[in-house]
Amino acid sequence: MDRFFSFLKNPDHKAGFIKPSLMDLFTLLVTFFILAVPLMTLAYLLSGTFEITHKELDANFAERLIRGILLAPLIEETLFRLIYVFNKRNLGLILLTSIALTVFFLFRDNIAKQIIFAASALTACILLLVFSRSREFFNNHFRFFFYSIAFAFAILHIFNFNGITGPITLLSLFFVLPQLVLGIILGYVRLTYGFIYAVLFHAVVNLPVLI
Fold it and tell me: Is residue 3 in a domain?
């Protein structure tokens, strides 16, 4: 865990990948639940007071597993963690994924997510057009972008709740603190062990929630 806490002080994107042991991943998983479960419990208690409910996924158990264990980790890691290694291939994958999601939510009549993913596609396109400058800027301010992306990952999960309107919107930030913790840990996993390990870690975290 010393490596993890040292990383949090100064996130590093140049160290290269190492192969994790099962104990490394298990320790990170336990760390996440130790931090997140109290936050989830308190959020659950507050949700009754402010009449905030978690959206139910309109799907059977098998569909929930496919979406939560396969699609969600792969898509979310592509959009939020792939960019930590800043190159044209990764930006291209983010661009294609964002376009596909924009079209998908166009048919689902979800205007908010259309705007979000269209903005993501536009951002990836601009970064590709000015790649040399954007890469230099990103690398020079990597710590800022690391935590900003983790925060954006958490904020996107506000869409998982019903009843968040008006002044309650600020309170809603508390409800996604577990996702902020997860986003930071996933960023560490992605940069230390590689992208596929971040996807697998994300899937494992989602599994007990879905069950």
Answer: no
CA distance 97 to 14: 25
What pLDDT digit, counting tens, does each position of 63-119 carry? Answer: 888 888 899 999 999 999 999 999 999 999 999 999 999 999 988 888 988 999 999
Decide if 110 is inside a domain: no
HEC letters along the chain: CHHHHHHHHCCCCCCCCCCCCHHHHHHHHHHHHHHHHHHHHHHHHHHHHHCCEECCCCCCHHHHHHHHHHHHHHHHHHHHCHHHCCCHHHHHHHHHHHHHHHHHHHHCCCHHHHHHHHHHHHHHHHHHHCHHHHHHHHHHCHHHHHHHHHHHHHHHHHHHEECCCCCHHHHHHHHCHHHHHHHHHHHHHHHHHCHHHHHHHHHHHHHHHHC
**pTM of the predicted model as reported, rounded to 2 decimal places:** 0.91
137: containing domain: 18-44+57-82+131-210
Structural domain includes residue 204: yes
Q: What is the b/e burial string over 98-137, where b = at least 16 CB atoms within 10 angstroms of the residue's CB?
A: bbebbeebeeeeeeebbebbbebbebbeebeeeeeebeee
CB contact at 8 A, 200 and 208: no
Residue type, position 61, single letter: F
Q: Which residues contact 203 (CB under 8 A, 6 or more apart)?
A: 68, 69, 70, 73
Q: What are 54's strand-pairing partners? A: 161
